[in-house]
Amino acid sequence: MQTKRTQKQPLVSVIMPVYNAAGFLAAAIDSILKQTYENLELIIVDDASTDKSWKIIQKYTKRYPKKIHSHQTTKQTNAAGNGAMNYGFQFAKGEFIARMDADDIAHPKRIAKQVAYLLAHPDTIVLGTQAKVIDKKGKVIGQKIMPTSHNDIYRQYGIFHPMIHPSVMINRKLLPKQKGVYSMKFNVNDDYYTFFKLLHCGKFANLPQYLLNYRVHGENLSLKNPKQKFIASVKIRFAAMRDFNYKISPLALLLMLAQIAVILPIPERMVVPLYMRVRGIKKAKFAAIKLALPALPIPRKYVTLPA
Q1: Are 154 and 199 in contact (CB under 8 A)?
Q2: CA of 116: how far to CAs of 8, 45, 100, 212, in Å?
Q3: What's the whole-model pTM score?
């Protein structure tokens, strides 16, 4: 039964794509159930998992039938959960759509703070947060820091993806009419391409608070085949200039050339560790990494490294 307070709150649909996430899934679901914001539904989409994920999902759905709605895709979509989120979108009833990954942990006030911001800023279409980075065991090993204002975010899109994807909440009213959230053209990078498109539908922002624990565990799809993903990201930037009239700055073009010069020649096994240390996702251990910083693609302003 809804309280008067809940009835006044806009409904938030939290969509959680799941693919073989049994080891972390319960913690992710619990973090949504423990939100201080009451009027939300959790839509869990199992994307043809081959582990015990679906059994865990069924258990939670039976325990919280009014809060959790679970679905399975008939065919694996993968694409880092973007296809599964599109699938879940058709069942979402909320005014706001929140992404939540099955291996992360949301801060208890994440949804409440994001809803408050979107209600106060109705011209904002995509709202993210900052994140602490945790390992398999939940230990904090770094942080992901993103720009907060629309203008800074717009400029940085030509250099890197300035939104922490599993932290975003979307104002559904501002979405172009479509069956899902993502344009499925670049596989794992579909969110990057889609957000270029959404830059013309409303403003972007990131809250300054750390409202997500982003888990790095060695099986993250977003960190696999890094050179392939980097090449796709470069193609997406040119596609954004062509398809969405994105205005890339001369500095961004210069930094993109620096990215190409640094990333393509080195062995692929070095790309992810170097990226994670330079971005502050993992603490830098070698002075050489700090010395390499000016040649790498992320503006120093948004990089936090230990002294």
Answers
A1: yes
A2: 13, 27, 18, 17
A3: 0.84
The helix (H) or strand (E) run that includes residue 96 is strand 96-99
State the helix-helix crossing angle for 250-263 and 226-243, rounded to 10 degrees: 160
Sorted by where each begins, the domain ranges of the chain are: 7-223, 226-302
pLDDT for position 184: 81
* Sole residue written with tokens 């409440």: 112
Sequence-distant (6+) residues with CB within 8 A of 173 are 95, 122
CB 129, CB 110: distance < 8 Å: yes
pLDDT in tens, 52-62: 999 999 999 99
Rounded to whole angstroms, the Cα distance separating 102 from 92 reads 18
Rounded Cα distance between 276 and 144, Å, is 10
Superfamily of 7-223 according to CATH: Spore Coat Polysaccharide Biosynthesis Protein SpsA; Chain A (3.90.550.10)
Closest CA to 199 of 249, 144, 254, 245: 245
* pLDDT value, residue 219: 62
Q: How far apart, in whole angstroms, are the C-alpha atoms of residue 186 and residue 236?
A: 8
Does residue 181 have a pLDDT over 60? yes
Q: Are strands 40-46 and 68-72 parallel, antiparallel or unpaired?
A: parallel
Q: Binning pLDDT at 50, 70 and 90, where does residue 297 land?
A: very low
Contacts of 161 (CB under 8 A, 6+ apart): 191, 192, 195, 233
Q: Outline where 74-202 has alpha helix (H).
A: 82-89, 110-120, 150-156, 190-198
- Hey, what are 219's tokens? 């099986």
Residue 270 has pLDDT above 90, yes or no: no
